[in-house]
Amino acid sequence: MDTTKNKDYLRVGVILRPHGVKGALKVLPLSDDPGRFNALSDAYLEIAGKYQSVKVKNATVSGEDVYLQLEGYEDRNAAETLRNRYLCVDRKNARKLPKGEYFVVDLIGCEVFDTDGISYGKLTEVYFTGANDVYEIKGEKKLLLPALRKVLKEVDIENKKITLYKDVLAEVGLFED
Questions:
Q1: Of 44, 92, 126, 166, which one's alpha carbon is 20 to 30 angstroms from that of 116?
Q2: pTM (2 decimals)?
Q3: pLDDT tens digits, residue range 16-34?
């Protein structure tokens, strides 16, 4: 869902462009649930590593498209200043995740091991491919791994540790030569 460096805030969307002349914004959702924007009233703009509080005046979700209006950005010129900015929420307003799902920001930096205790390095990136997420793990070599339940034995966010089933890893992992 996000890769912000400040773990107190979670990226939920990126502002693509103004929409119309009254300051509406088209937002690319970074959430699995675009409907979450319907209930969004308080958010933060990530600007140069800082988080500016904003009120969401209204939001419209149409399929995968999200349009919203922020207080203080009432015309196209003001909205244009927000192009390519991240829209974030703080943790207390974040969507509650079902068991077995994690925020990307919490996965980044986790040490990755297999069931024999062999270390592969740290999870550095999560790619969203549509079919399933792909984890990039960097250690002595780079490893690309589909984030499948059959390969993930345990994800321990609290201790920043991910354990993989070694036998399944051998089948699905793509190791750098």
A1: 126
A2: 0.73
A3: 999 999 999 999 998 778 8
